[in-house]
Amino acid sequence: MTHANAPTGYAYHVTDVSPYVLSCFHGNPSPDLAGQASKFSPLRPPGTPMPSTNMTLETSATALAIGGTSTMRWENASRIYQIRYTRTAAACWTFEFQTDGVITATSPYCRTR
Fold first, then answer.
1. What is the dihedral of CA 29, 34, 38, 39, to 10 degrees?
2. Does a cis peptide bond (omega within 30 degrees of 0) precede residue 19?
3. Does an H or E element contain 63, and which?
4. Which range of residues forms the domain containing residue 88?
5. Which entry of 12, 20, 28, 95 is 20 to 30 Å from 53 by CA?
6. CA–CA gap between residue 71 and residue 96 (Å, rounded)
7. Within-domain flag for 17
8. Considering the domain boundaries, does residue 106 fall inside one?
9. Per DSSP, what are the bridge partners of residue 97?
10. Burial code of 61-95, b = ≥16 C-beta within 10 A, e = fewer?
11. For the chain, how many structural domains are there in total?
12. Is residue 99 in some structural domain?
């Protein structure tokens, strides 16, 4: 099987269930192995990690069930940030981003297989 974004000659295939990747690899790597990375761009640009304090994650089995909400909270420079994520279906969540108690964005996400 060929994939448009796969390096020429080989590709690694992974799954979202254990064991995720093959337990062993074998073969002859491409002579241009070092140059393969230049074909791809990162999913997002690299950034500087935000220093934070008092990071907490409030969750439970009930919060992780459909309809439940978990909250990750942290502080930075006297501001309070939160990401609240509510499970809306078996593989879907709604993320709510807050700064100092004010909703700044929401984003739905569904895992695809």
1. -10
2. yes
3. helix 61-64
4. 53-110
5. 95
6. 9
7. no
8. yes
9. 83, 105
10. eebeeeeebbbebbeeeeeebbbbbbbeeeeebee
11. 1
12. yes
Q: What is the pTM of this model?
A: 0.56
Q: Which amino acid is at 48?
A: T
Report if residue 69 sits inside a domain: yes
Q: What pLDDT sits at residue 99?
A: 94
Provide the strand spans (E) within 1-113. 53-58, 69-76, 79-89, 92-99, 102-110
Residues 14/6, Cβ–Cβ less than 8 Å: no
Distances (CA, A) of 106 to 7, 18, 55, 103: 35, 31, 21, 8
Largest CA distance in the chain: 55
* pLDDT score, position 102: 96
- The tokens of 71 are what? 């909250």
- Mean pLDDT in runs of 10 for the chain (113 residues)? 54 62 63 64 65 86 92 90 93 93 93 76
Contact, 111 vs 88, CB < 8 A?
Answer: no
